[in-house]
Amino acid sequence: MYKVFATVMMIAMVSMAGCQEAEPSRTIVSLQIDSDGEDNWIYVYTIPRINMGNLSIKIGGDNQTHSSVFSHQVHISNEEISNITDSEGYFPLIVSADLKNTHWEFICKMRITASELDEELFLADVLIDDDGEEIVKVWQLPYNLPLEFKP
After folding, report:
1. Are 129 and 107 in contact (CB under 8 A)?
2. How far is Cα 71 from Cα 64, in angstroms, rounded to an integer?
């Protein structure tokens, strides 16, 4: 009888471990960007896998927000990108997440191109506004970036 009770209690405790409340201070929200030259993917996910209040990916004027999910992916073709780019070929990207009054966000303008040295290698030219100063980055795809807390 005690063995059955102990086994049931152990199973119950293990199953409840996955139901614990998430701590924002122990959560990493990560952005990943990838391309195959014709299609592009923007993916935001959490580590550990916990349900967020909201995960949002806004590309141009298209804002996709999902509640109570641990990941969110948007596919966008080069043709779709060409409809939302500025005169220099950049499109606006905003990725955000929230959990228990804690917010993460990344805002940039991006252009995805093939490498001049290798047709199989794709790059993201990224413009980030840092308090009025424009920072230019070049990321080799796929690229992964942990988001920072937003005050």
Report:
1. yes
2. 12
Instruction: State which H helix or E strand residue 58 sits in.
Output: strand 54-59
Query: Strand pairing of 62-67 and 54-59?
Result: antiparallel
Q: Are 41 and 74 in contact (CB under 8 A)?
A: yes
Q: What is the pLDDT of residues 12-42, one digit of tens each?
A: 444 444 444 567 878 899 999 999 989 999 9
Structural domains of the chain, with CATH: 29-149 (2.60.40)
For the cut 80, the answer to whether the pLDDT of residue 100 exceeds it is yes
Closest C-alpha to 141, from 125, 128, 124:
124
- The identity of residue 58, as a single letter, is K
Q: Are 99 and 24 in contact (CB under 8 A)?
A: yes
Question: What is the phi-psi region of residue 37: left when phi exceeds 0, alpha when psi lies from -120 to 50, beta otherwise?
Answer: left
* Residue 69: closest CA among 95, 98, 94: 98
